[in-house]
Amino acid sequence: MSVSPIVALVALSAALLVVRYFLQLYHHRKQSQALHCKPPRLGSSSFFGIPGFIRLTKAAREKRWIDHLYEEYAVYGNTYQQKFLSRNILTTIEPENLKALLATQFKDFSLGTRHQQFYPLLGDGIFTLDGAGWSHARGLLRPQFTRDQVADLTMLDDHISNLIDLIPKDRSNFDIQRLFFLLTMDSATHFLFGESVSCMLPPSEKAGVLESCAVGSAQGFANAFGTAQDYLAARSRAQGLYWVVNPKEFREANRKVHEVVDHYVNLALQSKRNPDKKTTDGRYIFLEALAADTDDPKILRDNMLNILLAGRDTTASLLSSTFFYLSRYPNVWNRLRREIVDIFGDARNPRSEITQTKLKDIAYLRYVLNEVLRLQPPVPINFRVATKDTSLPVGGGADCQSPVYVPKGTMVAYNVFAMHRRTDLWGKDATTFRPERWEENAKHGWEYLPFNGGPRICLGQQYALTEASYTLVRLMQHFDSLENADPHPRQEPVKLSNLTMSHDLGVPVRLYSSDRI
Q1: Cystine design at 242: which of 235, 291, 427, 441 (Cβ 3.0–4.6 Å)?
Q2: How many CA atoms lie within 13 A of 304 on its CB side?
Q3: What pLDDT, in 10s, does the model give residues 206-264?
């Protein structure tokens, strides 16, 4: 009986696929041996990783997916391989692996599909690009973060005064996280664009660019920015199917955000072309400084949005988590406030000017912020994708000390949140908020990465720490008492994580001064 050409072709194709599969297995085996690698432990890999995906989805619905992933390391070890919807993922919390991933083997890894996932909002920026595009974006931004103006704290004064005005004076409960997100939106747009969107001011006192934009209000801009980020997070979770997540609400949010930023960009370019018409009295403006290097409005918009994302959300997350812990540890609040008042005085009797140098000299302030960043890093989980067949230093073999083979295209997830809680690195009380641990050992290496590491280390690290420190000092000068107002007191927050981590239930507190300063 003769075989039809179609059946023969199908059979040949199937045979070629099988041959190709075994050739790849042989290739990877030889590569692994050449790199002296041994296999890592296996995590959840049954049924194409579907059960693991279901468990993670359930944990996400319960607002505990970050805690769920942290708990999995206790089951599978510090480095393990798993299937996730049929894709192999290597996940690790080994400092040596993170050092290789982010620094010593930086060129072996990329951001994968992040550029496509984030492009509708962020375009071609420092957080979305690899290679030459990333180098160019970072080269444009780096000089601006080395300027003395980054340490200029006077720009924050009015915004923090607006924040203090919004805090109830009758000792009633309020969510301080909501106010911190307004504060950082106002301060970030002021620093970047030269004009704050003034989220914290009543409508009657607002003026400026938003009046002429369709978004209509500062809160409308902030809401659109938040909505767009929520969809970026959903596109990231969808991995290769990111393109499915593109609803009208997402596209409209992107349009509103772009309209506002484009207006600022056009003002900066006009100011560049007509320097005699500047209205800022020589005040440093990040966007105008950047515009001195390029006339391309899209490059300017994309870079402004990338920095706005980092400047607003990460600092708000740090401040919110700081007050979450301070409201639960009154001994830490009292010690830190006492040291601050001893140096700077309080709001009624100020003693000396607050400067970036003096803020850095307050050791216990650094310890508190370090400890907050350890327990609640604003970016808890991240990943890279191998651009070539390579390896990571540890995690393989029975003792987990041999190198691990990483084939090209493999996703490597690294969990800073979990690494920061390893008892072998941080002590038996690793999950406890204790700033004093930094007095005992103030220097740490790759086991402490709140601002990432290597060539992609956060450019705005000092800016964020300075803004958070200054805000904390000003609030402690004005208020002497802080109380936890959470109706269900907990030592671990319910986490909301899209691109950055925040508190899903807010940070309810009571903040007041006994002498009503």
Answers
A1: 235
A2: 34
A3: 555 455 444 456 678 888 988 998 899 888 877 778 899 999 999 999 999 999 899 88
